[in-house]
Design a protein that fits this description.
Blueprint: H1 8-21, H2 23-28, E1 31-35, E2 39-44, E3 51-53, E4 58-59, H3 61-80, E5 85-94, E6 104-113, E7 117-125, E8 132-142
Antiparallel strand pairs: 1-2, 2-6, 3-4, 5-8, 6-7, 7-8
Length: 151
């Protein structure tokens, strides 16, 4: 990953500014939790509007997918030190149903960057990272060239 990344406070501000400019992220209520050199963590607070099956209280798959996709995209941003990429492929394997009214947290890591593609993996949980509700893996393609450095 790049050694000339911006300072963490600037990255956090960039993530929060970007989140505020994407209507569906704001409408879902997704919030910033944290980030590191190659990872980002976001959360989806409980919201009755997002329950896809009211009789059993299951959160809509689309809301969970958007959360994971957003966290993965930000993981790529912090690892590259740049924005300008799009989801190429994202697989989400559901492992469990989150408890009713749980905050769902997604933590994604960008573990490899090539000249044109970034690779991510991670999970979503409902309060206990040791008991994920979903596992994810994906790829992102760059719409602009990555910063100079090893491929």
């Amino acid at each position: 990953m790049s050694d000339d990344r911006p300072p963490p406070g600037r990255v956090q501000a960039m993530i929060q500014r970007f989140m505020g400019s994407v209507p569906h992220i704001a409408d879902l209520g997704i919030v910033y939790c944290g980030h590191g050199g190659d990872w980002a963590e976001l959360a989806l607070p409980p919201d009755p509007r997002l329950v896809g099956y009211p009789e059993i209280g299951v959160v809509s798959n689309g809301a969970v997918f958007s959360l994971v996709d957003s966290a993965a995209g930000f993981a790529v941003s912090v690892a590259r030190g740049a924005i300008g990429h799009a989801t190429l492929d994202l697989r989400l394997d559901y492992l469990a149903t989150p408890p009713r009214d749980a905050t769902i947290t997604a933590r994604m890591t960008c573990y490899r960057i090539t000249r044109h593609v970034a690779f991510v993996r991670g999970h979503a949980h409902a309060g206990d990272p040791e008991r994920p509700i979903a596992a994810a893996a994906g790829t992102f393609m760059f719409s602009i060239s990555p910063p100079a450095g090893p491929a």
